[in-house]
Design a protein that fits this description.
The complex is a heterotrimer of chains A (427), B (358) and C (333). With 427 residues, chain A is an alpha/beta fold. Chain A is 41% helix and 14% strand. The termini of chain A are far apart. Chain C is mainly α and 333 residues long. The chains are: A alpha/beta (427), B mainly alpha (358), C mainly alpha (333).
């Protein structure tokens, strides 16, 4: 990025730049532009910074440097294809597309190309069934376990009984937002609450009708599956109609630093999360020392410790641990994407591993197996504290109601297997 | 030196009315075909096929379709994204309902279904004109997307409303799905694009095409000389939607492999196709291809130069991409409002006299 | 009064307010279309750009900080001062005037007498350009718009209307957002001053002359180029107002540019050439889509507003192809 580099423009043109061979390649399909840039930028920063830290502090993973070629998708699936095709030839070990739409598109492709696809907290929920989706992993939690965790939390608050309560789901009217509906319907049947569905169309700048409806019906709780500008407007409208914030829950994409109001506006707003919040972990001092102070940070440093940054960091940590597992499993330094897949399938994210990575209790402890690519689906609840202006974790990582979710996962994945002529693996 | 007509005598009407009357032009065309069919498949990589050639061909078909409507019939439409979505979902339903059907029939049938839908949404064009019509076609865009998103039957009741193209083949060769080789996808799109371009070319210079152009130039005058505006406009909508439907079908099944209607077929798609048509040249088959090439290749090229070549941060590069594409569009419009096809035409005229222009 | 009736009334009132918000965006389109026959797609992006500039100036951001840092390896983001809202607004208006001059000089000037569709495309190119330019200049993170506009439901109104419903019904008083009230007030002031400006000032009369007939206006010595700069400046100002109002609602971010899509049905309904049309069209669309979502929406799954606005406008157009207040299209052979 120095001026002399500008001079090389004439020479280095069309060719897709190939990173130095013998690196461990973790492509980052990021979106720092477009309608979701505010969420995408810190995510990508966290992902990149973690690998920079490993390179600077430990000399890479098992002695092999990690490289993170970044490709801008703008949250656009067609650009996602371009990004996938342009990076996969460089020996990509794992893809984390950070977009539900792109995940669906990549599922068949990565399976054919033998590259694992890891979607932490997004993507296709039924991919938890490892028998059908051999190359897709969606641990530690997914949209359905998140929905169930929120309902559990509502039940706790209500003393265990929520029959007859009215719960409204305010959702982004897209594949992502529609995901939790079957689960919530099943849960509504089981626990006898009334579910109201309130869709908000993209981009969600004008939600007056929806919130007038909420104001009329006064649901006991609101669950929000929002994204981008929809979150900010929804929170503003919720505050406007003076909806009690502590009765409102967001899924993890609706509870970031962008999604709160100035001052005490959203004090008490809660949301599900699958990783911890804040920057009170040993790893952050290392990031400060080896990455930020060395001028190697991906962003301008203002995002460090934010929810989205932590999520990127966490995803990178999972990928790096899997790479270590693969190195140990196969006894080679330069692992291949196929070996990565095998490593993900036996990944054991225990408390010790996280502590060793400088992130004790950063996420839930979980194990992946051949049949279950989703882990136990543990999630916690975080809450916005308007006094200190921070997100805080309340309660621990807890299990969702798998009794309800497991059959849904089975049904949806089997429908996919049938449609695409996939014979489920035995395990 | 080039494009010389002297010595190129036409002895029959057939010769006289062929698409490329100049011998040099004809030969050039055959060479391009030969390269596209015989040479490229040997060199094509996954990246070139999936990120450059297939999108280029798919967008070219969509641009052809819109060009028929806007360029030849003068009906401004911004509903392209919605019609592409219809084509895509029709393909998905056909593929999953009739697993035995070959891809060719699936794609064409999807086109016909879209043509029918397009005709319905073309009805207001009989009353509404110009920009009012453009905005009116946005009703089609938003309504179709909403409908396809809302009714679970269209996506086989899957939890998220995403559709995924299953593996389908033709003559035992896999065309869709992840195991299809990039070459087959490319050739499949190429055959359709060439075939449809041939259809478009012959439609536009026949009776139907003349009636469209009459409507475009002045619809009242056309009506007076006996062109039925109902027939002309609706047929333009039908043919255009057929092309767009085929493009949507390929976009979903061969190019993306999975799609979600709100994201993949948003209003931006409609604008993108309109861009291609205008940048390429209104009322030109060749222009549709050039326009598509410009809009597909330009961002890829810029990205590879800025990120791959210069090592700029991806977000800066993406912003610059916007700036450069926007500026180029304006510059092209200022330099040659009739599109790249017109530039090619001017160049051709110059080359005809070159090197002795006087 | 029954609660159902009151709820319907509430929906209608809120629809009217939402309609005003749409009108604010539509106004900019109408101004430019009237004066130059250009369908300015970039109006939405102009609103975004104006809002970004306002916030950027207010918070003392360094323009192009990201680009400068990337090239020179520096680390700078803020000047470290705060500019009062009023001054920032004036400075932003200055930026928008400058923008209008640049657009006139480098784009419009070269595209005189082109077909409308070419001009339309040029504005889309301009929109692309500004999207990238705005992001490079001010960064793409979400910014908070704070110019002191109140927001939140009006408590006074809620309490006042609480007793209207019959005893025992589920009713919580009428809800109207204060921000919407301010927007309505601003829109009224804007329209009145625009009308006064075009009726009673020399420049205003020149504007109307150009709108009526380019050639005739030229022949009496009105400078088309100056008029265009003025019109684009006014449209830039209107965009700023729309940007402030919408930005206060959702924060200043990329999606702000998409409000143009909300204004299109308004334009279509009201007619591209009529300022009162933009207002009335906005009100009809606002009330129409909110009522439809309220009454029919729940039956067919909701989220109908996006397309219903267009279908509503389409239905009007079938009867009046030039929109409610548009100039009658006279066709000659």
């Amino acid at each position: 990025m120095k001026i002399k580099q500008l001079a090389t423009v004439a020479l280095t043109t069309l060719a897709v730049s190939a990173p130095v061979a013998a690196d461990l390649v973790f492509p980052s399909l990021s979106y720092r532009t477009g309608p979701y840039a505010a969420g995408g930028a810190p995510l990508a920063d966290g992902y990149a910074d973690y690998f920079t830290l490993l390179n600077q502090r430990d000399g890479g993973i098992g002695g092999v440097m990690a490289s993170v070629p970044e490709c801008e998708t703008g949250y656009n699936t067609a650009k996602g294809v371009e990004c996938y095709e342009s990076t996969k030839g460089d020996g990509a070990l794992v893809y984390m597309p950070l977009s539900t739409g792109m995940t669906y598109q990549l599922i068949p492709k990565v399976t054919a190309d033998d590259i694992p696809l890891v979607t932490t907290g997004y993507g296709r929920t039924s991919a938890a069934n490892g028998r059908v989706f051999s190359h897709v992993f969606n641990f530690p939690a997914n949209y359905w376990t998140g929905a169930s965790r929120i309902i559990n939390s509502i039940m706790e608050e209500a003393g265990g009984d929520i029959s007859g309560k009215n719960i409204a789901l305010v959702y982004h009217n897209s594949g992502y937002g529609k995901e939790p509906i079957p689960t919530l319907k099943a849960l509504a049947e089981k626990h006898n609450f009334n579910l109201t569905l309130i869709p908000v169309d993209h981009p969600g700048q004008e939600q007056k009708s929806q919130w007038l409806q909420i104001r009329r019906e006064r649901p006991d709780n609101i669950i929000m599956y929002g994204w981008g500008v929809m979150n900010q407007v929804a929170l503003q409208e919720a505050a406007n109609i003076r909806y009690p914030m502590d009765q409102m829950y967001g899924i993890w994409w609706s509870v970031t630093e962008n999604d709160k109001l100035e001052g005490m506006g959203s004090h008490g707003y809660k949301g599900a999360t699958f990783h911890n919040v804040g920057s009170n972990y040993p790893i952050f001092s290392d990031i400060q020392k080896y990455v930020t102070d060395a001028g190697l940070a991906a962003g301008d440093g203002s995002n460090v410790g934010s929810v989205m940054y932590n999520r990127g960091l966490y995803a990178a940590m999972l990928a790096a641990e899997a790479a270590k597992t693969a190195q140990n499993m196969f006894g080679v330094k330069d692992v291949t994407s196929g070996q990565m897949r095998d490593a993900f399938e036996v990944l054991d994210m225990s408390a010790e591993v996280m502590a060793a990575a400088g992130m004790p209790n950063f996420g839930p402890a979980f194990q992946v197996s051949c049949a279950n690519h989703g882990g136990p689906g543990l999630a916690a609840i975080q809450q916005w504290d308007g006094n200190t202006q921070e997100w805080k974790l309340i309660g621990d990582f807890e299990a969702p109601d798998m009794e309800v979710i497991a059959p849904l996962i089975k049904a949806d994945s089997e429908a996919y297997a049938k449609e695409n002529n996939i014979t489920p693996r035995d395990c | 030196m080039f494009y010389r007509e002297s010595g190129d005598f036409k002895k029959t009407y057939r010769d006289d009315s062929q698409t490329f009357p100049i011998k040099f032009d004809r030969r050039r065309y055959y060479v391009v075909m030969a390269i596209a069919f015989l040479v490229l498949p040997w060199f094509i990589t996954d990246y070139i096929a999936n990120a450059v050639m297939i999108p280029f061909l798919v967008w070219a078909i969509a641009a052809l379709g819109l060009n028929i409507l806007v360029g030849y019939c003068g009906q401004l439409s911004l509903g392209t994204g919605g019609f592409m979505a219809v084509g895509a979902y029709a393909t998905y339903k056909l593929m999953t309902s009739f697993p035995g059907m070959d891809m060719f029939s699936v794609v064409l049938l999807s086109g016909f279904i879209t043509a029918f839908v397009g005709m319905i949404f073309g009805l207001p064009s009989l009353r509404i004109k110009g920009f009012y019509l453009a905005v009116a076609t946005l009703a089609a865009q938003f309504f179709l997307v909403w409908l396809l998103n809302k009714v679970p039957w269209f996506y086989n009741y899957s939890a998220s409303g995403q559709i995924t193209a299953p593996e389908r083949s033709m003559f035992g060769i896999i065309i869709t799905g992840p195991y299809a080789s990039p070459v087959t996808g490319y050739l499949f799109c190429l055959i359709l694009a060439i075939g449809l371009a041939w259809v478009a070319r012959n439609l536009t210079r026949g009776r139907l095409g003349r009636s469209w152009m009459a409507i475009r130039d002045m619809d009242i005058a056309a009506e007076i000389i006996g062109v039925n505006p109902l027939m002309a406009k609706l047929s333009a909508f039908a043919v255009s939607s057929f092309f767009v439907g085929v493009a949507g079908s390929l976009f979903f099944s061969v190019y993306l492999g999975a799609a979600e209607v709100t994201e993949a077929f948003s209003i931006n798609v409609s604008f993108a196709v309109l861009f291609m048509v205008i940048i390429g040249g209104l009322g030109s088959i060749f222009g549709s291809f050039v326009g598509a090439a410009f809009m597909v290749l330009m961002p890829v090229l810029l990205k590879n130069i800025l990120v791959g070549g210069l090592g700029w941060p991806t977000d800066l590069a993406a912003h610059l991409e916007f700036i450069i594409v926007g500026a180029l569009i304006v510059i092209f419009l200022i330099v040659e409002p009739h599109g790249l096809a017109q530039m090619a035409r001017v160049l051709k005229e110059k080359l005809r006299l070159w090197p002795f222009p006087h | 009064m029954s609660a159902d009736f009151l709820y319907t009334l509430e929906v209608i009132l809120n629809g009217l307010m939402a309609g005003v918000m749409y009108s604010l965006v539509a106004l900019g389109f109408v101004l430019i279309f009237k004066a130059s026959g250009i369908f300015n797609y970039a109006q939405g992006v102009m609103a975004l750009f104006a809002a970004m500039t306002l916030v950027g100036i207010q918070t003392g951001q360094i323009p192009f900080a990201h680009l400068i840092n990337a090239i020179f390896g520096t680390e700078m983001h803020h000047f470290g001062w705060q500019v009062p809202a009023f001054l920032a607004i004036i400075l932003t208006v200055g930026v928008m005037v400058l923008f209008a001059m640049i657009v006139e000089k480098y784009i419009l000037h070269h595209l005189v007498n082109q077909e409308p569709i070419i001009l339309f495309m040029a504005t889309i190119g301009l929109a692309y350009f500004m999207e990238g330019f705005g992001d490079i200049m001010w960064g793409s993170e979400i910014k908070t718009m704070d110019v002191g506009i109140p927001s939140g439901g009006s408590l006074w109104l809620e309490e006042y209307t609480l007793g209207w419903a019959a005893e025992g019904e589920r009713y919580w008083g009428m809800y109207i957002d204060k921000l919407d009230m301010v927007a309505t007030l601003v829109a009224v002031i804007l329209v009145v001053s625009l009308t006064l400006f075009s009726q009673y000032t020399k420049t205003g009369r020149a504007l109307r002359a150009v709108a009526d007939d380019h050639q005739a206006a030229l022949s009496v010595g009105i400078s088309l180029r100056a008029i265009w700069v003025i019109v684009w400046s006014i449209a830039g100002f209107v965009a700023l107002v729309a940007g402030i109002m919408w930005g206060a609602k959702s924060g200043v971010q990329f999606s702000l540019s998409l409000i143009a899509l909300k204004a299109l049905p308004v334009l279509m309904l009201g007619g591209f050439t009529s300022i009162p049309g933009a207002i009335i069209g906005g009100l009809i669309i606002g009330v129409g889509e909110k009522l439809f979502e309220f009454a029919i929406g729940p039956m067919i799954g909701g989220a109908t507003e996006n397309w219903f606005a267009y279908v509503l406008a389409l239905m009007f157009l079938v009867f009046r192809p030039q929109g409610l207040f548009g100039e009658k299209i006279i066709e000659r052979v």
